[in-house]
Queue: 2 jobs
Job 1
Amino acid sequence: MEVGIVSYGAYVPRYRITPQEIGRVWGSDGEAMSKSLLINSKSVPAPDEDVITISTEAARNMMRRVPEVDPKDIGALYVGSESHPYAVKPSGTIVAEAIGCSPNMTVADYEFACKAGTAAIQTCMGLVGSCMVKYGVAIGADTSQGAPGDPLEYSASAGGASFLIGSKDIIAVINHTSSFTTDTPDFWRREGQDYPSHGGRFTGEPAYFKHVTSAAKLVLKRTNSAPADYQYAVFHQPNGKFPQRVAKMLGFTDKQIEVGLLTPQIGNTYSGAVPLGLSAILDVAQPGERVFVVAYGSGAGADGFDITITDNITRFNRSAAPLVSHYIEDKKVIDYATYAKFRGKIRVKEEVA
Amino acid sequence: MATARFWRENPSRYNLKAVRCNNCGRVFFPPRGVCSVCHRKSIGKMECLNLKGEGEVFSFTVVHEAPSQFEILKPYMVVMVKMDEGVMLTSQLINSDPKDVKIGMRVKATLRRLGEDGPSGVIYYGYKFRPIEG
Ligand SMILES: [Zn+2]
């Protein structure tokens, strides 16, 4: 049975802060940081936004594009994130209620650093492929934070995307998926800690590059494909430079990764990064085009996908919801003081009601 | 806010669940059991519907002195919105500057955080309005 993407929806908060502004406050060279990370600005959620509201917005955009799909036919919903608002109480329950697909269904929150959203896609593929559910919803979203002054503060941002996985009226067939997983301590956050820690130089070669290239090679080998067979490729993008370098290592060109590379404009949206990049590709892709996808999550693992756009995309109503480019352009730049207030870095007095 | 009371109203806060009186056609939000105009004639004729979420600004105000929960958002706007189904809703307006708000402006409902019972309490979600894009 063919399994794939029936619809998708994206969302990025509209506030932005620049590395130059962050550097100004901490006495660091923001300009140099911007160049070395290839990040011009990063998205910042409003104080009333979190993973639940971002996921809901993305999932509603997804449903708007397929008004013929009855939400009650959705049998599973998974939200992948490392910044769920609750430690205990699933984000997915609220999202499911908000898109009208509960209660006769299964929900769970996923967590695998930045690849929890693609892990959710794989789960939905299994459930749809085995006919356990008609449709599954896989969401990747985050509102990640770096400690003030930490290099992560220049990149950690917010956004998310949602995919409706099914076997009928598919706009993009997922031909194959393979993963590569090891125990690697490159990045972590302990329970109860506000900000994550990272293993310094552990974060490059043995983590991101090893896992992304390993998963990518598995997919290429198992599908008997070469980089030149794909029109588009999207890799996890903790900054603008890593995906460019990994693409080159694997033999993909800058042109293939251009459409799905959003980090230079919005920063690292963590679990939202590959889902948003893939959404930007689905916004423009044509029938028969192939898309190569590799997500990466610290800890560490990578999920690779081989996707082919179908003829159904020509009948699919993309314009029923905002394109990723709309969210990239609809922005409001804020200063560090506003950013610190929005992100709870300034403690306000609590009043007992 | 009381958790149980709020929870019962979630269908209305998340999905704008309302009722229509099929005797006179009036829409009520939040839902009520009997039409306030038709009274007994509406019994058995009240039908659930979800508002489409779009409407226009009927009136607005800018809040400069906020309760402590909303301190971080100020100044913020509160709007009365005449929904396309005819019913009036009140909530915050987001993604807009006070100088850009106009009566008659088209807006759309979206889900946001409304508040929380302190750092260890329940988080409340519900509708706020934003200008309709494009
Ligand atoms: Zn009536």
Job 2
Amino acid sequence: MDKNRGILIDTNLCDLCGACVAVCPEDAIILQERNIEVMQDRCTKCGLCAAVCPLNVPELL
Amino acid sequence: MKKYTFDITIIGAGPAGSMAAKRAAEKGASVLLIEKDKYAGIPVRCAEGVYRDEITRLVDIDDSWICSKIIFSELVSPDGNRVRAAEDASGFILDRKKFDQALAILSVESGADLRTETYASGMKKNVHGEWEVSACTRGEDIKILTKVVIGADGVESRVGRWAGIDTSLKLREIESCCQFTLADLNIDDQTVQFYMSKEFAPGGYAWVFPKSGGLANVGLGILGTYVKDVNPEKSLKNFVKRYFPEGRVISQIAGGVPVLPGLKDMVADGVLLAGDAARQVDPLSGGGITNSMAAGIMAAEHAVRSIEQKDTSKKNLTAYQKEWDRKFGKKMRLSSKLKKVVDDLDEEVFNNLVGKMSLLPQQKRTPFAFFKTLLLNQPKLFLDVAKFIL
Ligand SMILES: Cc1cc2nc3c(=O)[nH]c(=O)nc-3n(C[C@H](O)[C@H](O)[C@H](O)COP(=O)(O)OP(=O)(O)OC[C@H]3O[C@@H](n4cnc5c(N)ncnc54)[C@H](O)[C@@H]3O)c2cc1C
Ligand code: SF4
Ligand code: SF4
């Protein structure tokens, strides 16, 4: 599992508001009509998405 | 894979995108407006307040788009004192579901093609220097060949990044927001309320925007740098418990609001950004509806002009950024400066200020008077801000 360590955004908890997408320096988050996904290969685990989220959804694994 | 060709492709059917599509179509361009959601304007991520003067300049307002008409604004200090401002705050609380859809329909009536449930996933330039936008429409992958792309894709914008513009925000450049729509409130439908409080909304404020019939948008924004200390959702729950215990939550949204004086680059070859995508929200108020509409119109005009001139280069499109800067730049920079002043204010100073304001006759309690009182008491701030006003 080690190489899958990264950021987890649970679509069920997320409101799809896009604040995390706005701060992500790596353009690593895809936000669609009904789901959100982190491209783990781009993510540097900087934690900014977690730091801005109004609902505290993104989790560093 | 199906391919489509349009002069201008606009990504995002919010106020910026719909106004851009309307204007570009009116000017005779072939226009495609795409929106990832099923309906433009849903879900609503907004407190829905606009100044009457600003909105009526941009569109003929239909009464059915308005939830309530605002005459007064009330400022509430950290210690809970209230001061009612002069009656120059007249505005509307919109019904953005209806409003956004109406704007999208206006663009269609002007000749634009609107495709909802269509998500743009990327774009690249072909050998002829045109953009090829990849999108997925109702499960089907398509390509759109286009001379100009207008990125009106909101705070979550990626269009700029695809064109090589770094639109990513620092934590100090974004408000992290949470809002409830509350029912059963006992409030005045003609008054918007602003609460300044480091406890509930550090680096931001809380708002109450009445939608008539005891309904209101009640929310708060916290500057990104403080979210680790104060979580917006929890803080809003506490705020509501303190000030509106009778309120019944009927819906909840999260949101991000850019609060910077503007992007360094809003254009690239064949690309213009407008609205939240270009970070054109007023930093002090967080209001972005009318700015986005104005920017959408402006971007469309420059897009059409560049196509007519057969020169869609960044250099030629820079005139859009210049026009924006000429018309809005100074206000944006001043607003950003004043925001910093307000954010850094001691709660004590704020309490005093609200006290002083309430001594003035109501007609004199304008935002200008507020800042004047503040600046006269803080000479250093005065010098700081003066260079933006003078
Ligand atoms: C909590 C909160 C309260 C606010 N209150 C106010 C207020 O009272 N008054 C005010 O003036 N402003 C307010 N604002 C700001 C205002 O909502 C925005 O400035 C305004 O909506 C910006 O318009 P826009 O057209 O740029 O973007 P949006 O309205 O965000 O529209 C962007 C559209 O693009 C679509 N989109 C995004 N990516 C893609 C893609 N890849 N493919 C296809 N479609 C895509 C989205 O689905 C969306 O419909 C508030 C914001 C928040 C978060
Ligand atoms: S941790 Fe950083 S790089 Fe990774 S998704 Fe979040 S903001 Fe982007
Ligand atoms: S900031 Fe939070 S709620 Fe908003 S889209 Fe990102 S994870 Fe979801």
